UniProtKB/TrEMBL annotation:
Located at the top of the head of the 30S subunit, it contacts several helices of the 16S rRNA. In the 70S ribosome it contacts the 23S rRNA (bridge B1a) and protein L5 of the 50S subunit (bridge B1b), connecting the 2 subunits; these bridges are implicated in subunit movement. Contacts the tRNAs in the A and P-sites. The gene is rpsM. InterPro entries: Rbsml_uS13_C, Ribosomal_uS13, Ribosomal_uS13-like_H2TH, Ribosomal_uS13_bac-type, Ribosomal_uS13_CS. Belongs to the universal ribosomal protein uS13 family. The keyword rRNA-binding applies. One of its GO terms (cellular component) is small ribosomal subunit. This is Small ribosomal subunit protein uS13.
Length: 122
């Protein structure tokens, strides 16, 4: 099992797919990394040599913000918005959609499970 950026990437998957298990590296970044290091896209992680794993690790450390650093940076950006008390910060604070989606219906991901309101008595 190869360990890159603090993540155990699966050994039986292709390198491009396995790299996407690292937070902050998506399919396009994974493809760019493999092309830069001239690793064939159909190769599996278990077929990589220790030298190639080391090259991948160094390339990611040099060029990308990943895992804990990225999560910390994102959390700090949200905290900054909340401290500023700008519109986006207030929406984050209230747990509502931030980017202009409707909330009359839908928005259940942000608002949580629907809370029933007691019906009118007869």
């Amino acid at each position: 099992m190869a360990r890159i950026a603090g993540v155990n990437i699966p050994t039986n998957k292709r390198v491009v797919i396995a790299l996407t298990y690292i937070h902050g590296i998506g399919p396009s970044h994974a493809k760019a990394i493999t092309e830069k290091l001239s690793i064939a896209p159909e190769r599996r992680v278990q077929d990589l040599t220790d030298q190639e794993v080391l090259q991948i690790r160094e390339a990611i450390d040099a060029e990308y913000t990943v895992e804990g650093d990225l999560r910390r940076e994102t959390a700090m950006n949200i905290k900054r918005l909340m401290d500023l008390a700008c519109y986006r910060g207030l929406r984050h604070r209230k747990g509502l959609p931030v980017r202009g989606q409707r909330t009359h219906t839908n928005a259940r991901t942000r608002k949580g499970k629907a809370k029933p309101i007691a019906g009118k008595k007869k």
